[in-house]
Amino acid sequence: MNNRSLISINDYSKEEILQVLKTAEEFEANPRQKILKNHVIASLFFEPSTRTRLSFESAINQLGGRIIGFTDASSSSVKKGESLRDTIETVSLYSDLIVMRHPLEGSARFASEINDTPVINAGDGANQHPTQCLLDLYSIKQTQNRLDNLDIALVGDLKYGRTVHSLVIAMSMFKNIRFHLVSPIELKLPRSIKDFIVANGHSYKQYTDISAVINNIDILYMTRIQQERFADQLEYERVKNSYVLENSMLDNSRDNLRILHPMPRVNEIDENVDSNKKAHYFQQAQNGVFVRQALLATILGLR
Ligand code: CP
């Protein structure tokens, strides 16, 4: 993993994923180690973000590193028409590693192929979000004490949800996973990813209603219906409030059930659920710091 870009979760083997999770546990126990004090990390966000950008920044700050970059491409020379190639060529002269979020699918892979500076994909369009995937895996292991033999429900926008795509691919590396796919008809998981589930020896079922699965699962992974991915806003209006999780819906769920959400939420989880012991999404967001510290340390050859 040393000096290698992380663009898709498939770039890592199961053993490498487990190694990152183990290293993240070390950082959770001791997050303030000044191992990045001689490093500069570039943070290029061409799309809005709260958790991904700020947890990377927190991770870098706690490790004593320096950050350069932008949170809004309109403040960079992209606004004057500069190409992504030229932007990456230039930024790589100033930094040891580039973290990039971009709305175009494939943009992170393209950036990683321009030169030898490692790139971490912080989300490319509806394609992949591998660092979110690693913190999701960390959170599942933290709450269930295993990554095998699980019933996982994924709810919401399974068509455009890049966190869902990365998580399904990663969980398929483990044993005996039963995927319960809950979405409006228009937002079903893409066929290629369902084929991937089956090709890796797992099963899936599709539903339109959470109540059909909520009492028989270990992980409930809620997602937002993403307005920004819809070409047709009328279609978004039709599906936007398809799922709203409320406390009463959890009454007969398994004791070990934990609710995850990559966030941001709009209104798919009622705020009253936040105090339910089964809610784990803020802890999940905190785990992003430890996992990203582990990734930075690993890719920069410091672990
Ligand atoms: N989970 C996630 O990617 O959140 P942000 O868009 O706030 O970074």
What does this protein structure show overall?
α1 packs across α5, α5 (130-144) packs across α6 and α5 packs across α9. The mean pLDDT is 96. The strands form 2 sheets. A 5-stranded parallel sheet has the order 7-6-5-8-9, with helices on one face. Strands 2-1-3-4 form a 4-stranded parallel sheet, with helices on both faces. The radius of gyration is 19 Å and the shape is globular. With 303 residues, the chain is α/β, with parallel strands linked by helices. It has helices at 14-29, 51-62, 84-94, 107-112, 130-144, 162-171, 191-199, 233-239, 281-299; strands spanning 40-45, 66-70, 97-102, 119-124, 150-155, 177-182, 203-207, 219-222, 258-260. The structure holds phosphoric acid mono(formamide)ester (CP). Phosphoric acid mono(formamide)ester is lined by residues 49-52, 123, 132, 262-264.
CATH topology of the largest domain: Rossmann fold
Unreliable residue runs: none
Report the span from N to C terminus.
10 Å
Overall tally of domains: 2
* Architecture per CATH nomenclature, i.e. the level-2 architecture of the largest domain: 3-Layer(aba) Sandwich
What share of residues is helical? 25-40%
State the helix count. Answer: 9
Q: Assess the beta-strand content as a share of residues.
A: 15-25%
User: CATH homologous superfamily of the largest domain - what is it?
Assistant: Aspartate/ornithine carbamoyltransferase
- The CATH class of the largest domain is identified as Alpha Beta
The largest beta-sheet arranges its strands as 7-6-5-8-9
> Quick check: average pLDDT?
96
